[in-house]
Structure formats: C-alpha cells, structure tokens
Amino acid sequence: MTIFWILVAGLAALALLFVIPPLLTRHEAERAPDQDQLNLALFRQQLQELDADLEAGNLDRGQYQAARRDLERELLHDVDGQGADPAGPGKKAPLTALILVLALPAFATWLYFAIGNSAIIPRLELAAANRASAPPAGHGMASGAGTDAASLEVLVERLAAKMEENPDQLEGWIMLGRTYVAMEQPAKGAAALERALALAPQDPEVMISLAQALAAAADGQLPGRPTELIATALAVAPDHATGLWLHGLAAYQAKDYTQAVARWERLIQGLDPNGEDAAQLRQFIADAREEGGLPPGGVDSPAAGGPVTGSTVATSPAPPATDAGAPTGPAEVTPPVVRGALQVEVSLAEPLWREADVNHSLYVYAKAASGPPMPLAVKRLKVADLPLTVTLDDSLAMTPEMKLSNFPQVIVGARISPSGQATPQSGDLEGETGPLAPADQASVKVLIERIRP
Fold it and tell me: For 104, 157, 239, 426, which has the most beta carbons within 10 A of its beta carbon?
C-alpha cells in the first residue's frame, strides 16, 4: 500500500503543477482601445468629407453649417471625457491556488474510497511477491515440469471441496472421478465414483466408469467387483458397447475364453461388418478361440444368444482341458506374432511453438489401426522435453491383453494437452503417422503439426 499512496501523491502533485503556477504569476492586462479617440478620429473623417462636398459644390454654405453642427453634437454625446483605464499589471489568485491545493487531493481521495477497491492492492502485492519467488521456467528445464500438473491439482481440489459442500450433485462426482482417473489417481477416482453410484445406483454409465477406475487401480485387471459392475450395467443397458467390450475383456483376463467369445460376438453384431472395428474385434475373437481351444463358427455357450447378466460371470466354466482329446481349432488361426518395440522421434512444427507452453502435457502413444480406441502404449511427458525420442513397448500397455506386440497395424501419434487431460480435447496440438507394422519398422517420426478442432 505504501508504494500505491506514493504514486497517488506524485500524480496529484503533477496535476497541481499544471494548475497552481499560472494562478500565482502576475500577468500584464491587455490594453483596450480608447473609445474617445476612436470617436474623435471618426468625427475628423466625417468633417473632411463635408469639407470636400462643400468645395465640390455638392453642399451650399447653409447645408454645410447644419451638417457640421450635427457632427459636433454627436461628438459631444459620444465622448464622456474619461476614456479607457490605463493598462496596469494583472492580479494574482493566491486564494484560488490555495483552495485547489487542498481540494484536489481531498476530492481524489474521497472519490477513491467511494468507488474504488482498496482490498485489491494487498492481493496484487502478494501476487507480485509470489511471481518473484517462483522458480523461472524455461524451455528444456525440469523446473517447469510440475506447474501444469500443480494447477490441475488445485482445480481438482477445489472441485472436491465443492462436492463435499454439495454432495448431491451427481454430475460433479462423475466429473471428479473421471478427472482423478485421467490424472493417474484411480483410487481417488473410484472413491468419487462410488459417491456417484450411491446417488444413481441404476445408472449404467456410472457403473462402467467405476469399473474402469477400479480396474485401473488394480493394474488393469477387471475380474472381481469391476466385472460385477459391468454385468449389472449390461443388465440395465444390454447394448452398451463399452460394457460389452469390457465384459469380454474381463472373461479373457479370467481365461474364460468361452464367455469372452460370446460377449465379443454379441458386441460385433452391433458393428458395421465391413468396418475396421469389426475386423479388429474378429481378430480378438479368433485369438480367444485359439487360446481356449474353441472350434470356429458358433459359440458353445448359453450366453451366446441370451442376455448378459451378473450370474454369467459367477458360473463361468473352467478353461477347457488342453490334452490330446481337446479341440484345437483350425490350422489357419495362428497366435499373434510378438513384435519389437517402437522408437518414436517427436518434434513440434515451428509455427505451433507459439501455441504451446513448456509446461503443457505431452502424450506419445500407439493405438490399433482398427479396433478399440484405447492406447496400446502411452507415455506422458512435457513440452519442455521436445524434441525427444521415446520408446513404446509392451511394458506401457494399459491391460495385459492390449499389447503393442499383439497388433499387426498401429498408428503412432503425439498430442499436446494444455488442460492436462488424457482424453483428446478441442484445441490440443496433435500429429499422427501410420498405419504401420511394428514388426517392419523399429523407429518412426511424428511431427505435431495441427490443432485439434
């Protein structure tokens, strides 16, 4: 506040500097012309004209005398004998100057306290002190790496506090839970989604989201309560695509390949048979048949045509025996070939540098060219690390079955997220390359060159 009032006093003094000196300076008054002298000069001019008319014969002597007497009377009437006051020195205005010196600062101070906001000054000083004490963030410096995450954590903490004050807001709990999961805090996300489920126990979206959060907290494993939630959600919404996919994946993780095939075949019925999603899902089904020694074609499980329920998981049969008498499937179905890791060189196009901040999150990922949209491998870094080279391999898989080595064609990309969200948002900077075969290409270059609409 001290600096503020010093600035106020300085500006007030500057304003007075332009007003006070003229009031204290003596000026010479302007001299007004003498009216008597003007009247006398006019009389002489008119008299000369009368004389000229008399000599020219335009007037006789009597007319001349009468006109002259009229001029003389007018001159005597106009001339009062006093004339103009002689010009003297101007007067000073010390009283006016004194009033302004006192009134101007007083009025400005009163106006500030009447309509101003004095509380903002300490806040501005505190913000300036915080900026001064904060470590500088520069390109390539690790000191700025946590700034974006810290700001996001502050926002999430505010949302969590707001939800504790208003615990009946369903959408708020869902948003909080999904945000925690995106921030790689699945335990907190699951706790928030549990609150949402208590408010909407029959909402399939909430159940699916909670199942995903619980699986993320268990290293991607779905068997157990996540599977129960998924089955309950499918009982409410039997055609829920994400639920069907996860339900099949849960059975695959539990080595119940019969149920995995049944659930994925139900999902594929709602897909375009000529689309890439259907083609990729058929590959998963073929893989499950090969792993379980199931024959091609129809599914030998009651769950194939009937509704999917929670009891299906609880009564799943054990994996088929693998002795010589067990069916082995057709010879043309072969297990996926294990492929090597991918080295990804990521760079940012020069025109987009002004759109990015060194603290923004950078996601480098590989996803199936056709199939589920979830990444097969993903790494989170910072724009400050660009340009960089990162290795994507099976150790970065979100689930054991969704591995980079299990897919013949993948798309490799990189995305800069100002919000820090793991899911793509409008305004993100991104770039992708592919489809490509990881078995044939050990390294790939990705240029981030466009803004997501």
Answer: 104
Domain co-membership, 66 together with 179: no
Q: Is residue 134 assigned to a domain? A: no
Q: Which amino acid is at 287?
A: D
| Overall number of domains in the chain | 4
The residues with which 413 forms a beta bridge, in sequence order, are 365, 432
Residue 135 belongs to some domain of the structure: no
Q: Which of 272, 285, 216, 217 is nearest to 245 (CA)?
A: 285
Gap between the Cα atoms of 365 and 412, Å rounded:
6
Answer whether 0.70 is exceeded by the pTM: no
Q: Which sign does the torsion angle of CA 259, 263, 266, 272 carry?
A: negative
- Regarding whether 56 and 16 lie in a shared domain, the answer is no
* Same domain, residue pair 168 and 283: yes
State residue 7's pLDDT score.
75
| Structural tokens at position 363 | 């996601």
- pLDDT per position as a tens digit, 174-204: 888 888 888 788 888 899 999 999 988 888 8
Burial 39-61 (b: 16+ CB within 10 A, else e): beeebeebeeebeeebeeeebee
Residue 179 sits in the same domain as residue 257: yes
Say yes or no: 53 and 10 in one domain: no
* Same structural domain, 114 and 181: no
pLDDT tens sequence across 12-37: 777 777 777 776 665 554 444 567 67
Question: pLDDT tens digits, residue range 227-270?
Answer: 889 988 888 888 888 888 888 888 888 888 888 888 888 888 87
Considering only CA atoms, which of 235, 229, 180 is closest in space to residue 208?
229
Which residues constitute the domain of residue 382? 342-451
Per-chain mean pLDDT for the chain: 74
414's CB contacts (< 8 A; 6+ apart) are 344, 346, 362, 363, 364, 365, 430, 431, 432, 446, 448
Q: Is there a domain that residue 324 lies in?
A: no
CB neighbour list of residue 443: distance below 8 Å, 6 or more residues apart: 342, 343, 344, 345
Neighbours of 315 (CB within 10 A): 9
